[in-house]
Amino acid sequence: MHKWGMNLEKIDIDLSNYSKIIIVSPIWVFRISSPIRKFLTEIAEYIKDKNVEIVLTHFNPLVPNDAIKEINSFIKPTKIRSFITQLDHYKEAKNIKIS
Fold first, then answer.
1. pLDDT score of 52
2. pLDDT digits (tens, 9 = 90+) for 77-91
3. For 43, how many CA atoms within 13 A lie in the half-sphere containing its CB?
């Protein structure tokens, strides 16, 4: 809902050692979660040439297009997957456009 970041613990991982990076975020009020937003702002320059996959989880049956636009403003992922989780079941949203 708010677009400010959060304090994150320092993670001492050299992302250059990885050929694929998967980032998972719940959707908070149609946006990526604040911790993931902060994480993306801190690492965007280090992963811009990497194979990055984004996985989103949300309750709303609509594709979280605002969150996808926001992710695209930080990085250009190679794939975005969106999972709708409602009560005791889930399904993957189809036709996610990366832009």
1. 95
2. 999 999 988 777 778
3. 23
Cβ contact 36:23 at 8 Å: yes
**How many Å apart are CA 7 and CA 82, to the nearest integer?**
26
pTM, rounded to two decimals:
0.84
Name the one residue in this structure whose structure tokens are 């992302």.
15
Residue 11 has pLDDT above 60, yes or no: yes
Cα separation, 57 vs 83, in Å, equals: 5
Using an 8 Å Cβ cutoff, are 96 and 63 in contact?
A: yes
DSSP 19: S
Q: From CA 33, how far away is CA 37, in angstroms rounded?
A: 6
CA distance 51 to 47: 8
Q: Tokens representing 13?
A: 């991982």
Distance, in Å, from the CA atom of 40 to the CA atom of 37, rounded to the nearest integer, reads 5
